[in-house]
Amino acid sequence: MRQSLIRLFTSSSLIARTTGTRPSPRLLTTTSRAFHIIPRFCAAYDMPQSPKIVKVEELPATEAKWIEFQKISWQDQTGKDRVWEAAARKTRGKAGVDAVAIVTIIRHPNRPPSTIIILQYRPPVDAVCVELPAGLVDEKESPADASVRELQEETGYKGKLSFISPTIVSDPGLSTANMQLAMVEVDLKEGDEEPEQALEDGEFIERVVVPVDELYERLVQYDREGKTVDARLWHWAAGYHAAKTML
């Protein structure tokens, strides 16, 4: 991968495309600063086609590798018997936590605090999703260790864990899945080279470094472009935006 300083994108037209051609070098000037955009060579580029859904069909339980459906029999507050349908991951390890999502804070001596978001196509919603870096917790791994590992694999950046949340849930009406939200800080020096991602086969992840103060507006723009923003990322960005503008 071509080496460079962190790229801070400030125009949606320059955001890397999961289906587009390799971007050429250019200089982007904003009202306050200019950044040089360097071409990138990674798994998210130079693909022979755009991702697309070929077929959707029912999945027999015997063929499901990652998830299972559960029939939960329970009694409500009046003692009435009820049934709930849910999906559950098969991969939950000893930590009791399925996954981690990572809020990254990048500190640089001459640039504003920034964060990393990723773009990847998600078949269940048939869209390019804008997300926090995230991943499953391995069988014998702690969520804290998983957060640092997943950040480095998906983005190339190695940082230090500064905070991790209690175990939380995203969609308790549908799934037993849970997660922890981690904050990882990355300290850079002037002249540091851009790290390489360590993506697995079949992963097509585009990373984007964006100033924290511009994150909310960037997500709004992504939505206008037809991308789908992950709820965890949106909630964090919207909360930060509300704290700055409404309180």
UniProtKB/TrEMBL annotation:
GO molecular function, one term: ADP-ribose diphosphatase activity
CDD domains the UniProt entry points to: NUDIX_ADPRase_Nudt5 (cd18888)
Highest taxon above the source species: Eukaryota
Gene Ontology biological-process annotations: nucleoside phosphate metabolic process; ribose phosphate metabolic process
Entry keywords, A to Z: Hydrolase
GO cellular component: nucleus
InterPro entries on file: NUDIX_hydrolase-like_dom_sf, NUDIX_hydrolase_dom
Every Nudix hydrolase domain range: 95-233
Protein name: NUDIX hydrolase domain-like protein
